[in-house]
Write a structure and sequence with these properties.
Length: 163
């Protein structure tokens, strides 16, 4: 079951990257906030249909849970807006790896301290190694995309200067 959850998380990540790339293009055409609004509107409609047709009855409603838990819904707004802006400027790969780096860093803090009602999973050398590897990946992906975005005239002058 854990392997299935990992596979589903990878698929979810793939969909987020696709959403970011599509949202970035849409945002450059219609505006950042309109793109974010469309994302949330369509997402709300699809989720409402899924709830209506597939969600089993729960013991609690959204009105019964601790109110701080409802604040999690607000965390998606900055993500969507930032990705629509970032993908236009730095590309889907760099923006996505940067988001994953932020997710990894924050999730390790949440795990380590057991914040937000989660079970504590203490920080380790292996986890530190994962953060470092992802930071290195971010550096290399950013560096390679930055090199490709150099205008043609500059590339030509750099190659002629070498010769």
């Amino acid at each position: 079951m854990n392997i299935l959850m990992i596979i589903l998380a990878v698929v979810g990540g793939a969909f987020l990257s696709m959403q970011a790339a599509i949202g970035g293009k849409l945002g450059s055409n219609v505006g950042v906030f309109r793109s974010a609004f469309l994302t949330f509107s369509v997402g709300a409609l699809v989720t409402a249909l899924l709830i209506f047709f597939f969600e089993p009855k729960q013991a609690q409603t959204l009105l019964d849970v601790p109110k701080w838990q409802l604040l999690g819904a607000l965390c998606g707004v900055p993500y969507i807006v930032i990705m629509v802006l970032a993908v236009q400027r730095i590309g889907a790969a760099v923006a996505t790896v940067a988001v994953i780096f932020g997710q990894l860093a924050m999730s390790m803090l949440i795990d380590n301290y057991g914040w937000l009602g989660n079970e504590a999973i203490h920080f380790s050398g292996t986890r530190l190694g994962a953060v470092i590897c992802l930071g290195i990946a971010l550096f290399f992906i950013y560096s390679s995309s930055k090199a490709k975005n150099i205008p043609a005239e500059i590339k030509e002058s750099q190659s002629s200067a070498r010769n």
